[in-house]
Amino acid sequence: MPNTQRLYMVDDDLAILDSMQFMLLQYGYDLQIFDSAEHFLKNIDTSLAACLIVDSNMPDITGQQLQQTLVNAKSPIGIIFLTGHGDLPMAVNAFRQGACDFFQKPVKGKELVQAIEKALLISGHEYETIQLQQRYSTLTERENQVLQLLIAGKTNKQMADTLYVSLRTIEVHRAKIIKKLEVHNAAELAKFSPFLSNNANIDVS
């Protein structure tokens, strides 16, 4: 049964694309192939989690330029470079820009599969972080303060006393926070701790 996680490859060599598609099918992956970076960018939603295997040396848009485009777009896609003409500076630069792995052709199937699994895992975490950040950014400054107190485990009364507002006001803020952040329990709420704004720093003792 094919792996349903998104897996793409961009290479201007059609023979390489066909052979990689066949090889990865043996490992259960449904590889989508593209013969240019432009074709890839026009047809793929780069805001979703995925793994991209890309050749470094391509005409028009190179693998490095495609990587930079995805970085600039804050795409969560995990990138694996696969090139026939790689060198150390190229690999170092790719890793500095966030590449998950760098291989020279030909690559062994098992090694590539391990890299794919790692890239998909990293991409999934990155996608979740981006989604959390986007939800968090919808909070007002006051909701930000209430969230900090919620995560600290304060009761409604304690929050009302700390912020000098009524219990009803706290209840309204809590309801809005839960709706905006799309959370159902304290564990989900705690995921937003890394995003707490400096503006929300208040005494929670």
Model description:
This protein is α/β, with parallel strands linked by helices. Helix content is 52%, strand content 10%. It is built from nine helices and five strands, in the order E-H-E-H-E-H-E-H-E-H-H-H-H-H. It has helices at 14-26, 37-43, 63-72, 88-96, 109-136, 141-151, 156-163, 167-181, 186-190; strands at residues 7-10, 32-34, 51-54, 78-83, 101-104. The chain has a five-stranded parallel β-sheet, sandwiched between helices. Helix 3 (63-72) links the parallel strand 3 and strand 4 (78-83). Helix 7 (156-163) packs across helix 8 (167-181). It is elongated. The model has no long low-confidence stretch (mean pLDDT 91). GO terms for molecular function: DNA binding. Keywords: DNA-binding, Phosphoprotein, Transcription, Transcription regulation. Residues 6-120 form the Response regulatory domain.
| Rg, Å, rounded | 22 Å
Physical arrangement of strands within the biggest beta sheet: 2-1-3-4-5
Query: Topology as H/E string?
Result: EHEHEHEHEHHHHH
Low-confidence stretches: none
SS-based class: alpha/beta
Helical content band: 40-55%
Report how far apart the termini are: 54 Å
Pfam families: GerE, Response_reg
Protein name: DNA-binding response regulator
Domain HTH luxR-type: 132-197
InterPro entries: CheY-like_superfamily, Sig_transdc_resp-reg_C-effctor, Sig_transdc_resp-reg_receiver, Tscrpt_reg_LuxR_C, WH-like_DNA-bd_sf
Strands, helices and their partners?
Blueprint: E1 7-10, H1 14-26, E2 32-34, H2 37-43, E3 51-54, H3 63-72, E4 78-83, H4 88-96, E5 101-104, H5 109-136, H6 141-151, H7 156-163, H8 167-181, H9 186-190
Parallel strand pairs: 1-2, 1-3, 3-4, 4-5
Helix pairs in contact: 6-8, 7-8
Domain Response regulatory: 6-120
Domain HTH luxR-type: 132-197
Protein name: DNA-binding response regulator
